[in-house]
Write a structure and sequence with these properties.
Length: about 290
């Protein structure tokens, strides 16, 4: 599942490509209805056509695009969703779904985006999703992102890149294990399975520890490690352990730097002990039994 570094990479990629552009066309395949959560395709089209995308924002793993008509497009990539942008290919309309390299059978929705000044080529924004857990909402604008009527958005905790040590220490005052707290989007937004495991390893904290059992120093180390691994993930444009690509269809490379995630049975880079995998908080959890206490 795309986590904060992957979603932020996509947001940074598509922002300059789509900002200020007007939605001038839409192509949908039948499966797009599974992604449109609160609106049918026709209403969706009527409310977005001829309106411009004013910016692209991220909150947790949500991608938010306010339009100039007080409507807001919200995307969640789910397990395997991708947002891709490219120049509109120079082919006939009916060939758009078949004629170029990275549109494939999993591309369910395409928005054409026109430069109102006419200076730049038209761009298309594609929503591609193999497993169909991705979600799209069309909602009215509100003063705060948190108030948008999108399930899960209003209850998100502080963003993992911005959470303060005080806030982090506060969410760790719990009998739940640290892995479960890190994965809980209502406590801290943006961390998923990969970065939770890597942050625990980087801080030397065993993922089964309860939040309340962490010393002040351990809690501080874990807080710093969460931010460090997310920033490293961003630097390498995300982790492509399964379907993730950036907005150009290219894979990230942070998976080459994972220390424990999906490394079960391999030797720990820190001590040579064998990395273990257990099920924790409902997810596969990878750790070094020697380096992590
Ligand atoms: Zn180790």
């Amino acid at each position: 599942m795309p986590e904060l570094p992957e979603v932020e990479t996509i947001v940074r990629d598509i922002r300059p490509a789509v900002m200020g552009r007007m939605i001038s066309g839409m192509l949908v395949r039948p499966k797009a209805v599974q992604h449109l959560m609160n609106v049918d395709a026709e209403t969706f089209y009527k409310n977005i056509i001829a309106h411009s995308i004013t910016t692209v924002l991220r909150k947790g793993k949500y991608i938010i695009m306010p339009l100039d008509n007080s409507a807001v497009l919200v995307f969640h990539l789910g397990m395997t969703g991708r947002l891709l942008s490219q120049k509109v290919p120079d082919v006939n309309f009916e060939d758009r779904f078949t004629s170029n390299t990275y549109i494939d059978k999993h591309t369910h929705l395409i928005l054409d985006l026109m430069d109102p000044t006419g200076d730049d080529d038209d761009v298309e924004l594609q929503f591609n999703d193999v497993r169909l857990f991705g979600k799209i909402w069309l909602v009215p604008q509100s003063d705060n992102i948190e108030d948008l009527p999108v399930p899960g958005l209003s209850s998100l905790g502080p963003d993992a890149l911005g959470i303060t040590l005080d806030e982090f220490s506060s969410i760790m005052r719990t009998k739940r294990n640290v892995k479960a707290v890190l994965l809980d989007q209502n406590k801290v937004a943006g961390v998923g399975n990969i970065y939770a495991d890597e942050a625990c390893f980087a801080s030397g904290v065993h993922p089964t520890r309860t939040g309340a059992s962490l010393t002040k120093e351990e809690c501080g180390k874990l807080w710093l490690s969460v931010k460090t691994v997310l920033k490293e993930g961003l630097k390498y444009r995300g982790s492509s352990t399964s379907d993730y690509t950036d907005a150009s269809g290219r894979t990230g490379s942070f998976q080459d730097y994972h220390k424990v995630y999906q490394k079960a049975g391999q030797k720990c880079v820190g001590c040579g002990e064998t990395i273990e995998r257990i099920k924790l908080a409902g997810r596969s959890t990878h750790f070094c039994p020697s380096c992590q206490k």
